[in-house]
Amino acid sequence: MFKNMSVKARLTVLNSIAVLVATGIGLMGLASLELAKESLKTVYEERMKPVAVLDKMASLMLESQTHLGMALSEVELVARENSQTEAVQPPEFTAPPELVLNPEQALKSADAIEQNIATIGGLLRIYMATDLTPEEKILADKYAVSRDRFIEEGLKPAVAALRALDYEEAGTLSHKVRELYAAASPDAAAVVELQFDVAAAEYNAAVERYETVFAMTVGLLVAVAMLLVWIGLAMIRSIGRALGGEPDEINKAASRIAAGDLDFTIPLAANDRSSAMAAMRTMQEKINLLVSDAGMLSQAAVDGRLSTRADATRHQGDFRKVVEGVNATLDSVIVPLNVAANYVDRISKGDIPARISDPYNGDFNTIKNNLNQCIDAVNALVADAAMLADAAVQGQLATRADAGQHQGDFRKIVDGVNHTLDAVIGPLNVAAQYVDDIAHGKIPAKITDNYNGDFNEIKNNLNELIEVLSNRGKDVSTLIESAIQGKLDFRADTSKYVGVHKNAIDGVNSLLDAVIAPLSVAAEYIDRISRGEIPPKITDNYNGDFNTIKQNLNTCITAINALVGDAGVLAEAAREGRVTVRADAGRHQGDFRKIIEGVNETLEMIVNPIVTIKTAAET
Asked: What span, in angstroms and rounded, lies between the C-alpha atoms of 598 and 45?
């Protein structure tokens, strides 16, 4: 059956059968589970829920009896009103008291019972709305009648008696309620019992389905297992004949051959010429022959016998092509190698040959291109060296060779020559740039590059000049900042400088002295005036804006002296009783004038009432 099938096809058939069987068993199990689910749903939805509803109704009916009993347990004694029959009794007759229900408890119980009546009615409607079997419908209708009697003949009249606080009527109805409840209980129990009977029937049906499916599944599994065992044994026999050995042996042999290990024997069964193991032994023999010829050619090349070739007729197929290719490769290698050896020998002796123009293919063309590139690189290096030498002779020290036109160590040679020129010319250019910056008022940073010999001496001299100019700039900035902050007595230290640098700082200090002296005088005068001490006028000579400051201070002194003088005149007149004396405000200006006018007005306000009183007293 499996003789003409591949291993893949055989395994596919076996797996397909196993998958189909597993799928069939799984579908059967799923169908059984679905039926079980439906049975459980029926038991829960159509049986257990109605049982819960019926139980709740019975509980509420019993609870209503409890509420009625609680109302009857709390009573009060009240005086009985005289009726018409009692009116004929003598006046001294007093009717005995009667029992009535406690109003609070009676009304509370009545409300609870009415709530239970409404709930019971709703639950019964829910139950009656479900799908009822004919037998269940008969029992349910019977229970509905007994339930209605319980409510209509028992609970509702009892509620009316509770609301009327009628103890006797409520007690009578309490007995009737118990009787009606006892009458309705068997009907409810019958309905509940029916629910359990139906649920039990559903359970028994589910158990029967389970046992049937279980038996079918076990039988099917046994049959399929036997079929798979038979198919598996048949496949094992057919695959074993095709392989010719264990898969592990085949893998080991293939791995050793793939790793280049051919020195081992592949075992074969008797008359085995078509299995995978037989094919592998044949492959091993052919590869051994190919390796033998390759070793012979390799040894001949090592010995310098480059004309030796392998016999391609000993091989077949692609192995023959390999040997023929190796022979052809050796034939095409010798001529280009001889040309390359000759060119390398001439270049090593300084004899730069012309470029190779003969055509070659593949890697030999690459060798030719590399040799031609080497010739071009050496020629370019020689040309750049000659160009730099000629530029140096002509004084063109900025001329450099383009290192980008060279590669590898040739580029390093050109970079080295360029760097040598930079090492000579670089310091000179730096010195020239620094002198130019200083000449234009730009103080550069100190030179931090390392130089040797005379170049280092130039660097040190420039750095010393930069330091002096930097310190001078800092001192001038400090003087300016101190002046801005009002520190007018600060001066720069000239001992750090020599020559023209010291003269420049001395000049700045002297300039500050010339500016600050008049300002100090002005500050002193303003301070004395602010403390009420009026100094004499300034008589020293000043020039320009300083003279204007002096004149303004003298004008201020004059104005304040006039103000003080008028105040003294007014005070003296007041002491002498000359109350009509006033200061001449026209002699003053600005706020000083306002002060005099204010004093005059103040005196008027004080003196006028006094004069009026005096005049009135005299008349």
From this structure: 110
> Domain check: are 331 and 401 in the same one?
no
Structure tokens at 418: 């360029």
Co-location of 282 and 400 in the same domain: no
Give the separation between CA 403 and CA 318, rounded to whole angstroms: 51
- DSSP state for residue 353 in the 8-state scheme: P
Q: For 30-46, write each residue's pLDDT tens digit.
A: 665 565 555 555 555 55
Average pLDDT over residues 96-118: 84
Where do we find the tokens 């009103």?
Answer: 81
In angstroms, rounded to a whole number, what is the distance separating the alpha carbons of residues 251 and 550? 119
CA-closest candidate to residue 559, choices 522, 596, 600, 528: 596
Question: CA 203 from chain center: how many Å?
Answer: 57
DSSP 26-66: HHHHHHHHHHHHHHHHIIIIIIIHHHHHHHHHHHHHHHHHH
Tens digit of each residue's pLDDT (9 = 90 or more) over 245-299: 767 777 877 787 888 777 777 777 777 777 777 777 778 777 878 888 788 877 8
SS3 content of the chain, % helix, strand, coil (to 5): 75, 0, 20
SS (H, E, C) 88-110: HCCCCCCCCCEEEECHHHHHHHH
What one-character-per-residue DSSP string does 475-490 give? Answer: HHHHHHHHHHTT-TT-
First to last CA, the chain: 167
pLDDT(66) > 60: yes
Domain stop point among 385, 406, 439: 439
Among the three residues 348, 381, 404, which one is the final residue of a domain in this structure? 348
Residues 225-237 have a mean pLDDT of 77
Interatomic CA distance for residues 71 and 107, integer angstroms? 8
What is the three-state SS of 488-518? CCCCCCHHHCCHHHHHHHHHHHHHHHHHHHH
Domain tally, the chain = 5
Q: Which pair of structure tokens corresponds to residue 153?
A: 């003949």
- Give exposure, 524-537, as e/b (b: 16+ Cβ within 10 Å): ebeeeeeeeeeeee
| SS3 readout for 317-370 | HHHHHHHHHHHHHHHHHHHHHHHHHHHHHHHHCCCCCCCCCCCCCHHHHHHHHH
Q: Are residues 183 and 319 in the same domain?
A: no
Residue 377: domain span = 362-439
Buried b (16+ CB within 10 A) or exposed e, 86-98: eeeeeeeeeeeee
Look at residue 324 and tell me if it is in a domain: yes
Average pLDDT over every residue of 104-129:
85
Chain centroid, CA 162 distance in Å: 72
- H or E element, residue 282: helix 276-302
The CATH number covering residue 59 comes to 1.20.120.1730
Using alpha carbons, list the distances in angstroms from residue 329 to 291, 359, 536, 616: 17, 17, 123, 155
Domain-embedded: residue 105: yes
| 149 shares a domain with 43 | yes
Q: Report the predicted TM-score, pTM, of the whole model to 2 decimal places.
A: 0.32
Dihedral sign computed on CA atoms, order 467, 473, 476, 481: negative
